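PT: before anyone asks, these are the final sequences, not the draft ones from last week. 958 residues across everything. Please model them as a single complex and drop the result in this thread when it's through.
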Amino acid sequence: MSDPFAAGVGRIEANLAAVIRGKAESIRLLLISMLAGGHTLLEDVPGTGKTTLAKALARSLDGVFRRIQFTPDLLPADITGSSFYNPRDGSFTFREGPVFAHVLLADEINRTSPRTQSALLEVMSEQQVTIDGKRRELPQPFFVVATQNPSDFHGTYPLPEAQLDRFTLAVSLGYPDFAHEVEILFSQNDRHPLEGIAPVVSCADVIALQALVRATRFERAVAEYVVRIVEAMRADARLRLGISPRGSLALYRTAQARARCEGRDYVIPDDVRALAAPVLAHRLLLDTKARYTGVRAATIVEEALGKVAVPR
Amino acid sequence: MDAKPGAVPWPALAAALVAFAACALLGDEFTVMLPLAIALIVSPFVRFRLGERIWSVWPLRLGAYALITWTNVDPVRLVSESLLNLPIARPFGELCAAELVLQCWRRRASAGPPGAVVVLLSALVFQMGCNATQTNALALLTPAYFCFVVLTLRALRDRGLGGTRQVPRSVAVWIALAAALLLGAASSEALWTYRRTLDRWISRLDNLITALPSRGGFSDTPTLYGPPPGQGGSLERVLRIDAPPPESHLRGMAFHTYLHGQWGPNLTQRGLAEIDPALLRPDAPGPRRRITRWTTEDPVLFLPLAAAGIAPQGPVRWDDGEGATLCADALTSESYEVVFPATDSAQGPLCVPLDDAARARCLALPDDLDPRVRDLAHGIADAAPDAARKIAAVLAHLLTHHRYSLARVPHEGDPVTDFLLNGKDGHCEYFASAAVILLRCVGVPARYVGGYFAHEPAAGGGTIVRRRDAHAWAECWVDGRGWTTVEATPGDGRPDVTASELTFLQRMKENLTDALEAAKAWCAALDLQTLARLAAGGALLALAGIAWSRRPRKPVVASTANYDAAAPTLAVLASRFERALRRAGAACPATRTWTEHLAGGPEAARRFAAAYDEARFGRPGDVAAVGRAAALLEQFEQSLAERKDR
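LR: through. Structure below.
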């Protein structure tokens, strides 16, 4: 890895690895998403460490961390903030909502109504909030980590396509392997590993890392490769909704981030292939027949990769 | 057992095919069950599906219903045969089968499979088959059918029966089974109760297509009180001649006794005797034609009067005294050969010379014949010096004083007398009868003949004779010459003039029936060894088809030609590397990167791949990067060569 980049990313990874055992790849994906300036959706069954990972990431930065526990009675104003009438001087005072943070943990995001979920649309795509006609910028860097349990349907509201499209990638942690799970048992004997996490990078460092990522060379042939993969999926008859240009852009940015993490200042097709499924799969909307015949979105991505020739 | 939701479970298809077989056993005529079964078998292997919306299926549905209706209905048979045959059962079964096939070919929006619909429709089809036929094959088909139905319900148990309502599995299974059985029983009961009404409706529908209501054709009891023999006759084929015959008049029976508008004797009143086949001169020289009988209902062989020789397939009987009618056993004489005469005046086996008794019969007149008819005959023909001229005179009189008409004109008294004396119009029977009576009045032995007039060319050559071609004419004995055919009907009344063209549907129906008969005959002619070979070949083909349909399909790979091209030097390196990989037996697919493909592979190859990526995607135009890649490629190629030497 290039020196400043490697040092910063290495410190964050080490912090996160101390808390989440045996999930190096998931940690790397989370970091890639952050470095690409995007947001991450952590999907997994309960108790696998989704919230812990998000908290660990937040604590690794010296920025502001906020957590929103999404419940069915949550209102949009509870997320973005609202204006309060001050009877003393007869003025309205804006009270910032939890989105005004550097790292926002949206826990169990699918437990709130679509109306409240949509409050995050502008937040995630434009990193600003418009309230009472006034636009308020969010602090930089701004990073949303959302969690949801994909197997629980009682009292949940599936995320709309517009919301899903705003997550740069979706990560599934999965259960730890045997050895690491034993380590987890012992690691929490005295105290939770989270309590030992200290900030290792500053917000300015993160911004600099993101700038380095954007400066990563992206050859035209590889960009065409990205678009061909996306086009191959759009042509798939099993999909009701294909990949949007936002998805292509997400793949572009995350490929740059991965290239940097691998120590390169240029993107190669392997970066695109490695990130295709995490970045694109959650954006696909399968039709009814495909869903009921057991077709998975990741399978469609793999098939698209198998149909598109790699640039040489 | 599990099938894809949306696809028909295989037990349901098997049950449907068993039901089709049961329904196809109803008759041995052409049935649409075979093409429907083929369409059903093919459906799982073909991705194409008909539209989801019901309106796009309707043209196919209506077309199938029309095809089924006119291939099944023969209105005359509905009246003449026992109703236990339930001729409407097969059409209904075929309608359900067609609907079943359409459901299997429709694209379905819901996740529910069409399996439940297939079960219900197949139950109806099977019910129709069981209801109308009594055959031992049902003892095998019935348990097979119910086995497949149970297996189908088991397959559907896990996936539900479709639709949008949540129904408990066990309840849904029993509901489906009960509904299938109840529907089948109810439909059968309804068909039996309203069979006459349905018969009438189907007859009317068929009349719209065939446009010919009655059967008609040759009769062994010709009467002037009935409809004309040919007109109103159906298109049912009677004879096929393998080549155009030199003589169109094919006589069936000759009648000599006329009484009150009716000619006799009929076939049962004649004493038929076995004839020595040699007397029929089967080896006589002359143009030969093979006549095939389409229907074996008439035992009479239709032959030209002056046939030089006749070669039937089996034993024949004849009445040499009553007009030389030949009758054959229905089962053994499906075809017979006829040697046509070389000259018009030739006398063949059918031209039995007159003895005194036969002469008397051929000159006999009714006792109550109006004397004015005799006067008329004498007035026409007395001036003629010989029999031939008398015949010509009588024909000329008939042609000039009477017109051909199919309209049944009411008459008083004897029809022929009324026809002759009152200048009435009439059809061929009137003209033939009048000619015979007039000629007998002037002493020319004559007899009335019923048969067919062959005129219609058949597809593929030959001549087809239909029931509508039935005709009547006269035969006269001319001393010194023998028997001769006398056509008394005006030209515009002959069947070749009055016959209309077949409609497209009628031709299609005949072609399909012929194809089925040819296939049956071909199958019947097969010996066991050939059948076994065909079965084995069919099984192999089926296996090959299944294997081909399950073949792993190579994805269509987008070409690399459309990418922003690499520098020529890099392109050369890439080609060399790929050639080297191929030589090493590790060709890299176009859809994989080298790094991915070579994971765990030779170090030299992986290093080159990384260097190439750097030169191609990281440092385009950097000569040093290209140089590094080239050097690493040479190292790799060297290592390959060394390995090969070892």
